Amino acid sequence: MNKKAIIYGVAAGLVVSVITLLAYLIDKSLLANWWFGMIMLPIPVVAMVMAGIAIRKEKGSLPFGEAFLNTFITGIVFSAISVVFQILLYHAIDPELPAYLMEKAMENTAAMMEKFGVPESQMDVAMEEAAKSIGDAFTVGNQLMSIIWSGFIWGIVALIIAAIIKRNPETNTTTLDS
Description:
Blueprint: H1 3-27, H2 34-40, H3 42-59, H4 64-93, H5 97-115, H6 120-137, H7 140-165
C-alpha cells in the first residue's frame, strides 16, 4: 500500500464533506435530492484514478494487483471520512436533520410516484417501506455499515480502474547477435 492512496482518499473525503457542509448551510433540502449524491460520485472515482496514476508515475510501473489495492484503499478511506462527517452532521451538529431529510425524501418519493401514475393503494405500501429504509439509513450503526457496503462498490470500481491504469514493469529482452 502506498501513502498516496491514503492521501487521495483523505482529500476526496474532505472535498465531499466540505461540499456537503456548504450545501447544508445554503439549503439543507439539497441533501435530500438524489442528484446531489450523483454530483458527488465522480469525486472519489477521480481521486482513485489520480492516486493510481500518481503511484504509477512514482514507481515507473504498477502491476494490476498493486493498482487494485491502492485504488481500493483510496475508495475506502474516502468512505470512512465521508461517513464520519455524516455521523457528526446528523448526530452532533444537527440532530434534527435526519427527520427533516426523511420528510423531504418522502415528499420527493411521493411526487415521483404520482408522476409515474402509481395507484394510491400501491403508493401507500411503497411509502411505508420507503419511510422505514430511509429512517434506518440515518442510524449510526447503518452509517458505519455503509463503509462495508461501499467497499463492494469501490472494489468493483477499483478493478476497472486497475485494469485501465496498470503498467507492468518493462523487461529487457535483448538478443545476442552471434
